Amino acid sequence: RDFCLSRGLGDVYKRQNILMITKIENQTMPFTLSSYRVDEQVRQSILLLENKWSEKNIGFEMDMDSIEFCAVEGLLGNVWSNLIDNAIKFSPEGEIIYISLKEKDDMLSFKIANRGEPMSGETLKRIFEKFYQGDTSHKREGNGLGLALLKKIVRVHGGSVSAVNTEDGLIEFTVNLPAKRSCERLSLIHI
Question: Which helix (H) or strand (E) is 101 found in, with range?
């Protein structure tokens, strides 16, 4: 019964992700820009996932600047939540997740890194494709749409996202966004 319930919820999330990707691609989603503290949004995303990280006894090491940012707040919230959720999902029990949020040279840079099984070259190349799942052991926990949606959201904001295996054994995702402090004369990128 629990499997049926979780599978049903998974189907709902899959449909929601497909709908959001389609709306972003077709530019039919109304975007409302607002100015807010992105560091606080990241902290809220962590708190919303407390059940998951506390169950695995995962800790966080954070180095975040206080950054006022102009963006579609709800969309970027999806970016942070997805990356944090994936880091929790793919981290071994009792590990630390590293988060950095910095502003330098008019760019906002968000990095999240965790220990886990390194991604293959094929996975690194395809990780942001719709429906792609590099790690089939977690197939029941996802649908291969989260990172594709994340990439669309980041691109709409004029940014980029990447994933690498680091030399010190971490899996690291980096989101770079143009640091726009004011919402005046700001427009989103059409993709």
Answer: strand 96-104
Give the per-residue pLDDT at 16: 55
Alpha helices in 27-163 (DSSP H): 38-48, 50-55, 73-90, 121-126, 146-156
Phi-psi region of 116 (alpha: psi -120 to 50; beta: other; left: phi over 0): left
Q: For 17-31, write each residue's pLDDT tens digit.
A: 555 555 555 555 557
pTM of the model: 0.81
Dihedral sign for Cα atoms in the order 188, 20, 51, 162: negative
In the beta sheet, which residues pair with residue 120? Answer: none
Task: Give the pLDDT confidence score for residue 181 in this predicted structure.
Answer: 59
Q: Which H or E element spans position 109?
A: strand 107-115
Cβ–Cβ under 8 Å, residues 65 and 39: yes
The β-bridge relationship of strands 68-71 and 34-37 is antiparallel
Asked whether the beta carbons of 101 and 40 are under 8 A apart, the reply is no
- 168 is written with which tokens? 């010190």
Residues of the chain with pLDDT under 70: 1-30, 134-144, 181-182, 184-191
